[in-house]
Design a protein that fits this description.
With 447 residues, the protein is of the alpha+beta class. Helices cover 20% and strands 24% of the residues. The chain has ten helices and 19 strands. The longest helix has 18 residues.
Length: 447
């Protein structure tokens, strides 16, 4: 046999597919100068946790670039290229100053924006300080996470301040987890509602308390938005219909419904329990940064554990490598599903089906936006402020609706109608928006 074969079409024909097939580099490669890397560099991305900056510089790697991040004596955060502009010694061994950081090798002193403050071994009339800078990136710190913009300064967007950051009575606890695989195969998990049926339900038994009804196949709807997608899925239990909404904003931001739920009575416009970004470290590693939202109203069973949320840890099942291999084999979770695809999943080896609609939609939009950036065209990006935040939709609505003869069509229609109400609420903000949505749901679907 010669040439490339994507799939075996007859039993015992593994030999047919032995030849390697290249990964989809356009979507998966993120280094400097790559189309995908240039695309990611048009967004603000989380790059570190505030808790990491405890008096010493920290070496990190983001989008294939080796960087150093630190907090100076004036409580300012700096994100610089790791290797000193002078003789390339690593600034991870530098000395943090009251202002900026000093290289250990020859004492060159850099401010957080890369400005050279001092070159102590050079002549007093040297012009180095006014001639060059240490490469640096702007950062913003928010609720225990540090975000950076690594793209062209002239194209820097506004910060993606989300309305879910200031929800009443929500306590946001930051966390971060590494995965030794390409960013895309992890983030695609967030736009695939069908994996919950099998991975978290039928194959291994229910893994999340309160979500036992997820073993039923849902009716799913995808709602396109300029900055990404909102998708919903509906399931019935008696006369109750559970509608769960998820956010997926480009390139890698996701929010889901409430953790530790209970399908027992109607409710409207419940909010998210999880905000997360999957950030590429390089082509074969990614790091998730996010917040767990703790709120008794949106986590009815109250089984969240704040003390289990942090560096390489979160308080729900199957999210990290830090379990015995035997347990991970016996009862795999999300982490095993996305990392076991290999360092970079070979898309052309996949045989996609109806349940992969969300994955196809995401890849299609990514490809379109990546090519737009390469062509110098604008793309939609989430931008907001505390006063005018980005509206989000992740959460749960439960309606009391009698079963119909064509219940699948009914569940599809309910999702479209509730989504229309959610989106109509975008003309309001904060409590006013929540009140509008709840009022309209009550009017349209009286209990």
């Amino acid at each position: 046999m010669t040439g490339e074969t994507r799939w075996a079409t007859r039993p015992y024909h593994g030999y047919d597919t032995r030849l390697p097939i290249a990964e989809d580099a356009e979507l998966t490669h993120v280094g400097p100068g790559t189309p995908g890397g240039e695309y990611h560099r048009r967004f603000w991305l989380p790059v570190a946790m505030s808790a990491q900056l405890a008096g010493k510089p920290v070496a990190i790697r983001i989008l294939g670039e080796n960087l150093v991040i630190f907090r100076d004596g004036e409580n300012r955060v700096g994100l610089l290229h790791r290797h000193c502009a002078h003789r390339r010694a690593s600034l991870e061994f530098g000395r943090i100053e009251q202002r900026g950081i000093r290289c250990c090798y020859h004492g060159w002193h850099f401010d957080v924006d890369g400005t050279i403050l001092e070159t102590p071994g050079e002549p007093s009339d040297a012009t180095i300080c006014s001639s060059i800078c240490q490469p640096a990136y702007p950062v913003q710190e928010l609720k225990g996470l540090i975000f950076a913009y690594m793209g062209p300064p002239s194209e820097m967007p506004g910060f993606p301040y989300l309305d879910s950051l200031d929800l009443p009575d929500h306590e946001l606890v930051p966390y971060s987890i590494h995965s030794p695989c390409n960013w895309l195969q992890e983030t695609e998990n967030a736009i695939d509602p069908f994996h919950s049926v099998f991975l978290h339900g039928r194959v291994n038994g229910p893994q999340f308390p309160g979500l036992e009804h997820f073993v039923a196949l849902p009716v799913v709807a995808y709602h396109k938005r300029p900055i990404g997608f909102v998708y919903s899925h509906a399931r019935r239990s008696g006369d109750l219909v559970a509608l769960r909404f998820h956010d997926y904003f480009m390139p890698n931001l996701a929010q889901n419904g409430g953790m530790f739920q209970k399908l027992s009575e109607p409710r409207s416009f419940g909010r998210t329990s999880l905000t997360k970004w999957v950030v590429p470290i390089d082509d074969t590693n990614s790091r998730k940064f996010g917040w767990r939202h703790f709120n008794d109203k949106d986590e009815i069973l109250r089984q969240g554990k704040r003390d289990e949320v942090g560096w390489e840890s979160v308080d729900f099942y199957g999210q990290t490598a830090h379990r015995p291999y035997e347990e991970r084999q016996r009862n795999p979770g999300d982490w095993e599903a996305w990392t076991s695809q290999g360092p970079i999943n070979i898309h052309r080896r996949e045989y996609l089906g109806r349940t992969d609609e969300g994955v196809v939609l995401l890849r299609t939009k990514l490809r379109r936006d990546i090519r737009a950036v390469a062509a110098g065209k604008p793309i939609a990006r989430p931008e907001g402020t505390r006063e005018n935040p980005v509206p989000t939709y992740g959460g749960d609505t439960i309606l009391r609706i009698a079963k119909s003869n064509d219940d699948e069509a009914l569940l599809a229609r309910l999702q479209r109608e509730v989504a229309e109400i959610y989106f109509a609420g975008d003309k309001y903000a904060g409590d006013e928006r929540a009140a509008y949505i709840k009022r309209e749901i009550a009017r349209r679907f009286p209990d």
